[in-house]
Design goal:
alpha/beta, binds calcium ion, globular, eight-stranded mixed sheet, two-stranded antiparallel ribbon, binds beta-D-ribofuranose, 35% helix, 12 strands, 305 residues
Amino acid sequence: KIPIIFDTDPGIDDAAALTILLTNPAFDVRLITSVAGNVSVDKTTLNVLKLTHFFKREDVAVARGAEKPLVREYHDAANIHGESGMPGYVFQTPTTEAMSIDAVEAMFNALVTSPEKVTLVAVGAFTNLAKLLTIHPEAMTHIARVIVMGGSLSGGNMTSVAEFNVFTDPDAAKIVFESGLDITMIGLDVTLKALLKSEIMTTLSNMNHTGQMLMQLFSYYGDGSMQAGKPMHDVNTLFYLLAPEKFTLQDYWVDVVTDGPAIGATVADIHARTHQTTNIHVAMAVDVAAFNAWYLLEINKINDG
Ligand code: BDR
Ligand code: CA
């Protein structure tokens, strides 16, 4: 089992990832933390609780995180994920609440009380993680590795160069990228290729209640298209943890641009000119057919009848 802390801003692709996280026994979920990103932190926290309720995983602790980026002003992505962040399916009102301590303290406690090192997966803006590393640097020795969905070496989805999670809080991304932790960046270079095709979405909806819930969310998802397929950005982090052989990685020094017209860009020193060392394992390619097949299998395994 992989001990995991999952930092997220649901968000439709976040919900698609949380579906796997909460149902696949390979993951020992120690904590889920929310952050302002796709929608406000009040909404992302509620959305996490809706999903822990949906999957009867109220045993999983949920902590509310940052309501705005470290420095920049906050802007949501409700144009892509709807006003609620998870539109199209009517979830029941959750019966549990977020912890009384905030995400940073909850992460710290979960890390220092864990007998083994914990994998951190971050699929929203990196504000919570940056705060953790700044306020509690001693937490670093308890982190096995960090898998992030964010960044891109091949163009952005917010500006021509910036990806949404990094663009939302570039100052936080810079702190995380330069922390010295073992970081794998699953960015748009792969996530814009790993599209869930519409045939697959239809198959999903015929499988079970979970598949229907997902299909309803996907039909409101403003990223990609039904014809070409929709990018399941955040889901790739979990596919990577379970099937790393399906990805091609390259190590680079990656800088985060924190001001100017390229703010939010992630720039790799591909010619090794400015740095002798590397700080990030960058996912450059993924087996898309394997990704689609795996996602179907994962949903099909869920017994929610
Ligand atoms: C990332 O931005 C968010 O909108 C998605 O949930 C994903 O984490 C893609 O750029
Ligand atoms: Ca996300």
